[in-house]
Design goal:
alpha+beta; Bactericidal permeability-increasing protein, domain 1; Bactericidal permeability-increasing protein, domain 2; 2 domains; seven-stranded antiparallel sheet; 25 strands; about 25% helix; innate immunity; secreted; Bactericidal_perm-incr_a/b_dom; Lipopolysaccharide-binding protein; BPI/LBP
Length: about 475
């Protein structure tokens, strides 16, 4: 029954995933709710995996004493046990309020084949046997928790097993004689199996599953510099109808992680249980990403004339800018321009159901590229816009698509006199629409991983998006 013990806990691995070295008890950025419907799906899939696993194992040998009338007591041994067939009909995985999960398997049967030996001081008998074990029922309660590192913990708090019937048929040297005493043999076989099932399950949970959980990674790479921390912030919560798992959901810089001043919102999911899995995501997840990518300079950009499509009527040259900056073309005839954009502070996102929006504020410095390869600053602009995005969730990651708003340009400083900003505004709208946003959409198309679902394929998902505590960010003067 070793594989049975090993495989039962594996049903839970899709439902338990990891955490990080932060203090437990903080509000989560991501909450996953696995409903009773989702747990039953996991139990069914686990039952199929268990049934396949059972057919590949060898059961442990067992021995005992046997009284044979007119012969006396002898020593028996059953060895080379292999499961020839198995039928696992029913399974259930249910939440246990305040504790964890209860896993049960019932109305199941297996057929075992192997070899037997009987020894008496003056003789030795051996042969083969066939055992049919029917009406197998197993019930295991698993206590779920979390440790200070954020990794999950699991303990088999109780276990019971029952076998309704065992039938043994023996062949070989005087096998017919032993069959006369099959009641003794079947009774011993049944007692051994019933006692070993729970013993092996509890040993497997403590010696295999729990140590394995302690080896699980607590972060996942997003790209060359950013990681996501999907640690548990507290032990999984079990109620009568669901299991909720709370993840930190913080995106951080891999090489120099620093404390985040943002606070994740308190999230409350509606009392819905129609779908297998529900997700609640706070904009804390995306705002920590914004901090990291801003720090890395990913939001800064530079535009030169060779980046403008050849067929564009607008060029980044002093000549092209003559209609709205006449002095620029006179002071720097037939020279190219470069626009350098920076974001003074990381833009913070706002959530509404199914969408997110952000109001980024940028500063753009314009330079003339002199023949000496030096750059001469000529004006500075402030740029404000609104961006919204739709989000898509599947069984492995979050993806999205940006929908740009119109860019508004304001002149902050000019060293070449007055000019009309409308043309530059049009140029920026063209570039951002055709170059800048596609770059970000490519990144969003790659997506952010949802490690919770890497080990299970689910088809019935729900989503709720939550807003963080309000925050205020003033634009630079």
């Amino acid at each position: 029954m070793g594989a049975l013990a090993r495989a039962l806990p594996s049903i839970l691995l899709a439902l338990l995933l990891t955490s990080t070295p932060e203090a437990l008890g903080a509000n989560p950025g991501l909450v996953a709710r696995i409903t009773d419907k989702g747990l039953q799906y996991a139990a069914q899939e686990g039952l199929l995996a268990l049934q396949s696993e059972l057919l590949r194992i060898t059961l442990p040998d067992f021995t005992g004493d046997l009284r044979i009338p007119h012969v006396g007591r002898g020593r028996y041994e059953f060895h080379s046990l292999n499961i020839h067939s198995c039928e696992l009909l029913h399974s259930a995985l249910r939440p246990v309020p305040g504790q964890g999960l209860s896993l049960s398997i019932s109305d199941s049967s297996i057929r075992v084949q192997g070899r037997w030996k009987v020894r008496k001081s003056f003789f030795k008998l051996q042969g083969s046997f066939d055992v049919s074990v029917k009406g197998i029922s197993i019930s295991v309660n698993l206590l779920l928790g979390s440790e200070s590192s954020g990794r999950p913990t699991v303990t088999a708090s109780s276990c019971s097993s029952d076998i309704a019937d065992v039938e043994v048929d023996m062949s070989g040297d005087l096998g017919w004689l032993l069959n006369l005493f099959h009641n003794q043999i079947e009774s011993k076989f049944q007692k051994v199996l019933e006692s070993r099932i729970c013993e092996m399950i509890q040993k497997s949970v403590s010696s295999d599953l729990q140590p394995y959980l302690q080896t699980l990674p607590v972060t996942t790479e997003i790209d060359s510099f950013a990681d996501i921390d999907y640690s548990l912030v507290e032990a999984p919560r079990a109620t009568a109808q669901m299991l909720e798992v709370m993840f930190k959901g913080e995106i951080f810089h891999r090489n120099h992680r620093s404390p985040v001043t943002l606070l994740a919102a308190v999230m409350s999911l509606p009392e819905e249980h129609n779908k297998m899995v529900y997700f609640a995501i706070s904009d804390y997840v995306f705002n920590t990403a914004s901090l990291v990518y801003h720090e890395e300079g990913y939001l800064n950009f530079s535009i030169t004339d060779d980046m403008i499509p050849p067929d564009s009527n607008i060029r980044l040259t002093t000549k092209s800018f003559r209609p709205f900056v006449p002095r620029l073309a006179r002071l720097y005839p037939n020279m190219n321009l470069e626009l350098q954009g920076s974001v003074p502070s990381a833009p913070l996102l706002n959530f509404s159901p199914g969408n997110l929006s952000v109001d980024p504020y940028m500063e753009i410095d314009a330079f003339v590229l002199l023949p000496s390869s030096s750059k001469e600053p000529v004006f500075r602009l402030s740029v404000a816009t609104n961006v919204s995005a739709t989000l898509t969730f599947n069984t492995s990651k979050i993806t999205g698509f940006l929908k740009p708003g119109k860019v508004k340009v304001e002149l902050k400083e000019s060293k070449v006199g007055l000019f009309n900003a409308e043309l530059l505004e049009a140029l920026l709208n063209y570039y951002i629409l055709n170059t800048f946003y596609p770059k970000f959409n490519d990144k969003l198309a790659e997506g952010f991983p949802l490690p919770l679902l890497k080990r299970v394929q689910l088809y019935d998902l729900g989503l709720q998006i939550h807003k963080d505590f309000p925050s205020r960010r003033d634009h630079p003067p």
